[in-house]
Design a protein that fits this description.
The protein has 362 residues and is an all-alpha fold. The protein is built from 14 helices and 2 strands, in the order ααααααββαααααααα.
Length: 362
């Protein structure tokens, strides 16, 4: 581990600790620890099993998306995916999203931009399901506009939820339209033609210079665009699209079921499966806001807000959310480390390459 990476990791821990302080500053620690000790942790086992089943379905879905480019096994998709999720949990900047295609390129010889496009396609399914769940659950609630939980500079309330929903809706629509257009051959040809024509705008330059620009810049850009298009070819196969949609519903249904199972062993959390699904959706919407690695603090604040809608006290909401957060995150981190051993992946190198790519894009 390099000094920069170590500093980033330690800094993430410190920031997470501060975030947790802000999330729980109004909850007496003695009461919080008492509640954490009163939870029946036997429910952790089935909850974790359901969580890992949802991740296996995620790997299956990603394999289907990748299939149009290269056929790989579910396990060959599972390991890069878990490593990516692990990196998201321990390092800032959601580097795991770009680390996954880096690993694919190393292990499966799939072009980086193609792998990144498949990750984007996968995220589109998640956004669509979350938006649908929001309308079916949170949209049906009568939320008091004055109900508010303060977390740092964030005010977690109805207005924030609506703003996040609007942002995700616009992002989802933009990605869907972009992927659809890029999957049309005629549209791609127009884009390629525009790229190849750009040197002609340099009217003051000689033909030799223009030819050099075409060869050194335009042609590589077109190759990148072709690789990206390769990652979006799923849209040409309706049966695969349907399979991914069904898997996405199952993935999020199982994620909510994991929340529900753990709530059965948590005192004071007497919510139905549908109500717990609502809690999960609200937490997911709030943690889409910029936050620390692992979403520590913001996750808890979002959980306290969501559970308060169903009359759960702050102490019980804080205790349950903290324990459930750990349940959802720590097994992923452990599984990610195991996957690094299976693939003999150098996390330092993968994270560095992912960071370099993100810096290039910004």
């Amino acid at each position: 581990m390099t000094k920069k990476m170590a500093a980033s990791f330690i800094g993430g821990i410190i920031i997470s600790a501060v975030a947790l302080y802000f999330a729980f500053k109004n909850v007496p620690l003695a009461e919080l620890f008492y509640y954490l000790g009163s939870i029946n942790y036997l429910w952790v086992l089935p909850a974790v099993a359901i969580t890992f089943l949802s991740f296996m379905l995620r790997a299956w879905r990603w394999r289907i998306i990748l299939e149009s480019t290269r056929k790989i096994s579910v396990w060959r998709a599972y390991h890069p995916m878990m490593i990516g999720f692990m990196i998201n949990c321990v390092l800032p900047g959601r580097l795991g999203e770009v680390a996954r295609p880096v690993i694919l390129q190393k292990e499966e010889k799939i072009p980086f931009t193609t792998g990144l496009a498949t990750v984007v396609a996968e995220r589109v399914f998640d956004i669509c399901i979350l938006l649908l769940l929001f309308m079916l659950t949170v949209g049906m609630l009568q939320i008091d506009p004055d109900q508010n939980v303060t977390f740092g500079s964030y005010q977690l309330n109805l207005e924030t939820l609506q703003a996040v929903f609007s942002g995700l809706l616009k992002l989802g629509a933009l990605l869907v339209v972009g992927i659809a257009l890029f999957s049309i051959g005629k549209f791609r040809k127009i884009i390629y033609s525009v790229v190849m024509y750009t040197p002609e705008l340099l009217f003051f330059a000689g033909e030799k210079f223009k030819s050099s620009v075409r060869k050194k810049i335009c042609e590589p850009v077109i190759n990148i665009l072709k690789n990206i298009a390769g990652g979006f070819t799923l849209i040409r196969y309706p049966k695969k699209m349907l399979s991914c949609a069904v898997l996405s519903v199952l993935i999020w249904g199982l994620a909510a079921f994991s929340y529900y199972l753990f709530s059965l062993g948590s005192p004071g959390i007497n919510l139905t499966y549908l109500e717990m699904t609502t809690v999960m959706v609200i937490v997911c919407f709030f943690i889409s806001l910029p936050s620390v690695p692992g979403w520590w603090g913001l996750w808890e604040a979002g959980g306290v807000f969501a559970l308060s809608l169903f009359g759960v006290t702050a102490k019980e909401a804080a205790g349950f959310t903290l324990a459930n957060h750990a349940l959802q995150v720590f097994p992923v981190i452990i599984a990610g480390f195991v996957s690094t051993m299976f693939l003999s992946v150098n996390i330092r190198q993968i994270s560095y390459q992912g960071k370099e790519f993100k810096n290039e894009q910004t």
